[in-house]
Every structure is written in C-alpha cells, then in structure tokens.
Amino acid sequence: MNIVFLDAKTIGKDISLDLFNNFGNFMAYDVILTKNDLLQKTKNANIIITNKIVIDKTVIDNAKYLKLICVAATGTNNIDLDYANEKGIIVKNVAGYSTKSVVQHTFTLLFYLLEKIKFYDNLVKNGKWCESKIFTNLDKPFWEISGKTWGIIGLGAIGKEVAKIAKCFGANVIYYSTSGKNKTDEYKRVSLDELLKQSKIISIHAPLNKKTNNLITKDKLSKIKDGSIILNLGRGGIINENDLAEILEVKNIYVGLDVTKNEPLKKNSPLLKVKNNDNFVITPHIAWSSIEARKELIQKVAENIKIFLKEKR
To answer: Which candidate, 299, 259, 296, 302, places its Cα nearest to that of 97?
Structure first.
C-alpha cells in the first residue's frame, strides 16, 4: 500500500506516526499548500490520510489507485463523499477521540472569563497589588456556577459530558437540540430563544450544517442577559462574527471562542478589532488537541486502515 498523510503538521510533531509504516510505503507531509502539489503527491496513493485538506472530484479522478480515504478528524465536510462512493472509494473518519479534551477546554474558557483571570494576573504582575492597602482585590467581582442556569446548544456526546460536569457544580442545565433528535429526561429541553434568555452560561457543542449556520445573530445575541457568558466549542459559522464583534462593544456579555468561520482567522476579521478585550477570549481551535486525544486519533486512524486491509483480503 502507498499511504500519504497530507497535513501531518496538524497532528503535531510530538505524536509518532511510525505505526503507519506497518501497512506499507508511508509518506507524511507537513501540509500540502497547492492543488498541483496535492495532485502530484496523491496520484499513486492507495490510501490518503487527511485532516483538513480537501479531497474533491479532481483529486479522486487523479488518484487512479485510491481505495481508502482516512479523515483524521470527525467531520467529513472536506471530502466529496458522493463522488467517492460513486467511485467505490471507502471514506473513514474518527469519532469520540476528543470528547474529554473539548470538555476540559470548555471549562478552561469559562473560568478564564468568569473569574477575570486576565485582569487579576495583570494586576499582580504590573505591581499594582504590591501597592494595595489590603490583602485582596475585589475590583472585578465573580460569581459561582452553583444555582445558575447553564444552557447547552447541541446535546451530543460533548454536550452531555459538559452537562454532567456543570450539574456537579450545582448548575441548572437546560438544552436546545439543533437536530431535534437528541432527547433526554435528565435536562429540560427548551427553544433557542428561551435558552438564550434564561441562561447565565451558554455553551455551543453543535456541528455546522444548514440548521446551525448563522444560528446566533445580532437578534439572538441581544436576548442574552447582561453579564452572561457564551462559549463556542462547536463550529465558527454558528455565530455571526460581524454581529458578535458589534454586540461585544455595546453589551456587557462575555465570549469565549475556540472556533472561527475562517481558520486561521483572517487579518481583517472583525473579531480582531474588538476593543472590549477583557470580555473576550479566542483560542486557535485547540480544544480537540490534548496529547491524549491526538494519540487516540492516530491509533483510530490506524485501526481504520487495519480493518480495511483485513476486509480487502
């Protein structure tokens, strides 16, 4: 088997890819940037591994020996699934590998905003606390999760795990199902407007699709209570970024993002022009990427290849 990994840099250099050598002639590229290079590097491939690089009709037609596409991620929106199926090419993704990592990052963003960590860290490091007449500082009050309503948008595996931990903190959990399919008697299911109006903490754990694209606009953001926190750990297109940047300047809400519509963020993004930065934090799509999650991801990609080869024989 000729196996190529098109964007191995997205997995990190600290994660070994040696196990793929067991399956044949393996070649890993940091990241392929041009279409011509992509066509050249995949033309003799039997197996393609990709995280985010697009495998479209042109790539599939050019790769005459292609039998399997392994997506080193859960989402398969970068693959022309219909055409791959038409050509008899199997597509395998990996699900569930990053749940713990994303849940942990959800709470990381929450506590950073909730407890005003940026302000208090700066207060100490710039020497202002040294000048204080008392032992503490209460300039930026924070509140407890206990007794507050936590609204979850998207109650899949990640949303359910966040709900379980939020409940341990004493939160009253409610949820909105973007698909309409997720149901549970453990938490109250409400409309999106109800969730936005009632919740002190809102976290998004939904995929991007026709139902969720541009789901949260200026109108929806205006319904959120003053002082509330909204976190997006789903996909960037779920929140309208122009509206978000605008509302952050006029409304007292706190926002934590790990995903944006364009990744990496474009230099002219309205999110980079927000002046009210104390209420706003962005991380570069890292919630999924704990060391453990990335190791498990590679193990599961290898397992997908192993199963394919076994079935092929």
So the answer is: 296
Give yes or no: residues 55 and 113 share one domain.
Answer: no
Number of C-beta neighbours around residue 12 at 10 A: 12
224: left (phi over 0), alpha (psi -120 to 50) or beta: beta
CATH of the domain at 142: 3.40.50.720
278 shares its domain with 193: yes
189 is catalytic: no
SS3 assignment, position 117: helix
Q: Choosing from 105, 235, 241, 294, which is the catalytic residue? A: 235
32-74 pLDDT, tens digit per residue, is 999 999 999 999 999 999 999 999 999 999 999 999 999 999 9
> Of 105, 205, 285, 294, which is the active-site residue?
285
Tokens linked to 82: 């219909």
User: Do residue 140 and residue 267 come from a single domain?
Assistant: yes
How many CB atoms sit inside 10 A of residue 14's CB?
8
Active site residue 235: yes
Active site residue 205: no
Tell me which residue of 222, 105, 224, 205 sits closest to 163, measured CA to CA. Answer: 205
Ranges of H-type helices in 81-211 = 81-86, 99-114, 117-125, 157-168, 192-198
pTM of the model: 0.93
Contacts 24+ apart (CB under 8 A), 133-141: 140/116
Residues 184 and 104 in one domain: yes
Counting every residue, how long is the chain? Answer: 313
Strand pairing report for 149-153 and 172-176: parallel
Q: Which of helix, strand or coil describes residue 79?
A: strand
Structural domain including 308 reads: 2-95+291-312
